[in-house]
């Protein structure tokens, strides 16, 4: 979370302006997409983490844990379906 919070605190708009001036006309669409992705992932990651932590405390997770489901199974079958839609929307945005 330290890395995520660091990316949230950094003001990305001035950095994007400086990077835009530095790479003007000499870069591909892929590089521009990577630069935007580097500075745009932190808010979505923080939200998905908070959703997963909230889901972790629900009763059906305890029931799955007591029934002997592995941690990976709980993540894939119980937590992931709830956060998947938000992850897709965040990726599209």
Short description:
The chain has helices spanning 2-9, 12-22, 29-40, 42-56, 59-66, 71-92. With 93 residues, it is mainly alpha-helical.
Explain this structure to me?
It is a single chain. The longest helix has 22 residues, at 71-92. The protein has helices spanning 2-9, 12-22, 29-40, 42-56, 59-66, 71-92. It is elongated and about 60 Å long. By secondary structure, the protein is an all-alpha fold. It is 82% helix and 0% strand. It is built from 6 helices and no strands. The model has no long low-confidence stretch (mean pLDDT 85).
Pattern of helices and strands: HHHHHH
Mean pLDDT level: 85
Low-confidence stretches: none
Question: Largest sheet, if any?
Answer: none
Number of helices: 6
| Shape, per Cα inertia axes | elongated
- Beta content comes to under 5%
Structural class by secondary-structure content = mainly alpha
How far is the N terminus from the C terminus? 22 Å
> Would you report the number of β strands?
0
Instruction: Report the radius of gyration as a whole number of Å.
Output: 18 Å
How much helix, percentage-wise, in residues?
A: over 70%
